[in-house]
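Much of the work behind modern protein science is quiet bookkeeping, done one molecule at a time. The fold becomes a row of whole numbers, each drawn from a learned catalogue of backbone shapes. The protein below has been through that process, and both of its lines are reproduced in full.
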Amino acid sequence: MSAKPPFKWPKSILSHKAAQQTQVEAPTLHLETDYLKLILNARVYDVANETPLTYARKLSARLGSSIYLKREDLQPIFSFKCRGAYNKMYQLTPAEKARGVCCASAGNHAQGVALAANKLGIKATILMPTFAPEIKVENVRRLGATVVLFGSDFDAAKKECMRLAEQENWVFIPAFDDPYVIAGQGTVGVEILRQIKQDRLDAIFVCCGGGGLISGISAYVKRIRPEVKIIGVNTYDSDGMYQSLCAGKAVEIKEAGLFADGTSVRLPGTECVRLCKQFVDDMVLVSNDEICAAMKDTFDDTRSILEPAGALALAGLKRFLADNPFIQDGVFVAVSSGANMNFDRLRFVAERAKIGQGTEAILSVLLPETPGTLMQLHQSISPHFVTELAYRFNDPTSAHVFAAFDVSDRDADVAKVTERIRSKGADWDVIDISNNELAKTHGRFLAGGRSSMVKDEVLYRFKFPDRPGALLKFMDLLKKGAYNVTLFHYRNNGADLGRVLAGLQVPPKQLDTFKNFVQDLRQAGYMEIVEETDNPVYRHFLI
């Protein structure tokens, strides 16, 4: 047995485990299936690699514990699923192989079955839900399997797959609820215990969909190192395993969220739940924003981009430590289960990662509709880096501004900025909307909108090198022009150039003077200034 951790474990959120907190003896197995034997004899390395256990240096330093990532994203199909699929299909008789196989999967099990079928020379048909990422669909086809897209979620695809299996006499390959699939996934646990180079291992965090991975890992680890905690992670909108363990049996949830598509399962496996009920110590629930933050954390330490389900275990580990700040100097492993994500999702992940990490704040600010107040707002936010400012003239006395900026300690930093804003007078006010879902999902893109009160407005688009202080310099130049700003939108998108859309009130008599002002801006070194007053987007949507 390894050394004891220097902290006391918190009470499990699973009621049936709360009374077993001090148990460290290997649990007695009364099972027909000898999972220890199955796992140790699993045939996986014909197609799978022994993946590394990577020390996350930056994350460990930040969280005050030793954090290791089990890199299943480095498998040939960028997911652990090839282990269980191949182990199951290797056991088929020649007659069963000749019949062909089928499976239902959101993508990673599908790739595992397709890879195993390719290796073993078996015909494979894969049922995938219509939301399956294109990168997974194309890889299944590349491996030689036939793909049928069906249903709005995994469970609908599975029902259709079972129907076709009976009709066509195919052998159905379960995604998780099968002893050989569970045993194949359990080899991840074998490798973790062999690879860890510490005098102790406190806990392994594992994502949960149907439950094959966590049931396999826990069935092995609890027999060999029973003191090691096994902690499952669900999303709030796909918490089938959590609900099942609370109920003591497999429970079908009404709907499963689609962001972490690899764990989007409404009904966990019956056998998986039975094993997890015996071996899993605790569960953690996380949000999609926390997953995005964990994806960024993984990238910062490894320069690899996980899919949402692949980062779910790390998100759970971080949430667990945030909820239990007394835990320090722990030794934890998070299984990075996969990296099959469409490239076009990266923008959403990058936007939400800051919110999930607590490194961006979003405010709704009420300020007087007088020249210079927008710049005063920027100065109140300074020295924090402003990531977005959106404003539209709509009232002659007051204005609402959407403002976002980077923070290191969100609560403390927002409190200071809020105090500075409110100190400017009774006609200034501010609301923290950092956790407002409407603001994060839609509001930041729609802030501004139409205005029926603006007259003599011209619209210009500005592009300039986005160095520290560049936005404040730009706003200072606008202020020198003495033109009333009627629309303003700036958003930092991580590029080297800052982009501002600004509406300015210019009476017809001042147009010649204004053209000279624009020329002065160009001479100040701005790379691009384009008038958009006649742009149909402006005409149709902003006035």
